[in-house]
Amino acid sequence: MSINHINLVVKDVDKAVNLLTDNFKFNLVVNRNSKMAVLRDNNNFVVVIWGQELNNEKDLPQYPKNFHIGFYQDDEIAVQNIFELLKDNEELKIESAPKKIRKTFGFYCYFENLMIEISVNPFNYE
């Protein structure tokens, strides 16, 4: 058994789709009237982007403390390259430049209230 998808609730489906397709190598499978979208990466991992309005709510969705999605990179250079790509993205709030975090190297950013971690795989980090 393996995990094959995650459902992320966001206020702005189109902005979330653009973030994932433009920066994280996801491909759009379907966008249903900017209310729900399905994306897939090269490993066939699926992200369902669920618009908050489908929950009949208007505010930004709230996630539990420390909930986040993570993207492992091969090395510090790859982390730095993604930071450079994202640092001026107006849709993101970046906490700080990449640095040593726990037993790896990376950084956190937020899309709406969704925390995103970009780091070197800690199991391969020296």
From TrEMBL:
Domain (Glyoxalase/fosfomycin resistance/dioxygenase) ranges: 3-90
Chain segments annotated as transmembrane: none
**Annotated coiled-coil segments of the chain:** none
The record's listing under SUPFAM superfamilies reads: Glyoxalase/Bleomycin resistance protein/Dihydroxybiphenyl dioxygenase
Q: Which InterPro entries match?
A: Fosfomycin_Res_Enzymes, Glyas_Bleomycin-R_OHBP_Dase, Glyas_Fos-R_dOase_dom
Q: Which Pfam families match?
A: Glyoxalase (PF00903)
Protein name listed in UniProt: Catechol 2,3-dioxygenase-like lactoylglutathione lyase family enzyme
Organism expressing this protein natively: Sphingobacterium zeae
